[in-house]
Amino acid sequence: MRHVLKTEIVIDASPQTVWSVMDDLARYPEWNPLMPELVGQTMVGRTVTGRMIIEGGPEIPLGPVMTRIVGARELRWITIIPGDEGFSAEHYFILTPLEDGRTHLTNDEIFDGPTADQVWELFDTLGRQSYEAFNVALKARAEALAGASVSIHPAVHATVSNASGEGPAPDVLTIKCHCAADAVEVAISGELAHNHLCGCSKCWKPDGALVSQVAIVAADTAKITHHEEKVAAVDAGQSIVRMACTECGVHVLGRVDNPDHHFFGMTFVHPELTTAAVSPPIEFAGFLSSLIEQGAQPSIMQAVRGELKEAGIPTYDAFSPEIMDLIAWHKIKAAA
Ligand SMILES: [Zn+2]
Ligand SMILES: [Zn+2]
Question: 3.60.110.10, 3.30.200.20, 3.90.1590.10, 3.40.50.1110: which CATH number matches 154-335?
Answer without folding.
Answer: 3.90.1590.10
